[in-house]
């Protein structure tokens, strides 16, 4: 059974976290189903939300990059 772990900047989905997670999970599940022939109940999707201040690109946090 595929286990998909999605790490996402928390603020990227802040305006509708439940709705955006559901949409992403549905799309990812559909892609896995199409590629493998598995049922949707065989695909697990887990989200890890990381604050922008804790996610870095090189030496700069995403929060800092967004302020620029």
Automatic annotation (TrEMBL):
InterPro entries: 4-OT-like_dom, Tautomerase/MIF_sf. GO terms for molecular function: isomerase activity. Residues 2-64 form the 4-oxalocrotonate tautomerase-like domain. Keywords: Isomerase. It comes from the Bacteria. This is 4-oxalocrotonate tautomerase.
């Amino acid at each position: 059974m595929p286990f998909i772990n999605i790490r996402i900047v928390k603020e990227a989905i802040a305006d509708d976290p439940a709705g955006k997670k559901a949409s992403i999970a549905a799309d990812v599940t559909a892609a896995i189903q199409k590629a493998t022939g598995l049922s949707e109940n065989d695909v697990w999707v887990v989200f890890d939300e990381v604050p922008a201040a804790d996610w870095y690109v090189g030496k700069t946090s995403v929060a800092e990059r967004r302020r620029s």
